[in-house]
Amino acid sequence: MNNDFLPKDYKEKTPPSNYTKLEEGETVLRILDKPIMGWQGWEDGVNDKQEKVSKPVRVKDDDTQGFQVDSFDEEVRDVKFFWAMPVWNYNEKVVQIWVVTQASIRKALVALSNSKAWGNPIDYDISVTRTGKEKETKYSVMPTPKEVISPKIQADYLALNIDWEAWWKSEDPFNKDEGKSVDLDKILK
Hints:
This protein is α+β, with helices and mostly antiparallel strands. The chain has helices at residues 103-114, 151-160, 164-168, 184-188; strands at residues 25-31, 36-46, 52-60, 77-89, 94-100, 125-131, 138-143. Strands 1, 2, 3, 4, 5, 6 and 7 form a seven-stranded antiparallel sheet that branches.
């Protein structure tokens, strides 16, 4: 039977997420700003529609005090140290927040940052490759040749004006404030 209604390789489209999820294979990213650091766990709750949901609970990392497990309520589970940073995801063609809980990725970024040849990871794209599943998952990080960031990517990032204080409170950091404007001349210089 010949069905010409849809293309043979048709897949339903969904809008890209505001958060980077490393799928099997290669994800190419451009880090857009320095990471923020802290501890994140998960707490079960109910949303406005009375559906069960898990919500992140975050605590800023304060090197002067040290992390205290009792900073979280006992209902909070799976507590992990993280870096969070804005990135351009070339696979999705969108600015996202990348929450890095994997120590192997953070160690690779530290090594690149400390390298005389590579330096600041904001100055080049990185390729993160994920292989394996569940506890057998492995990540590799590879820099790409240094290149000036595209003015469009920079403009897209600055236009978002991510609200990190909202993010710390597990609120939508991408909530658009119609009153804010961006000076594109300043961005494109």
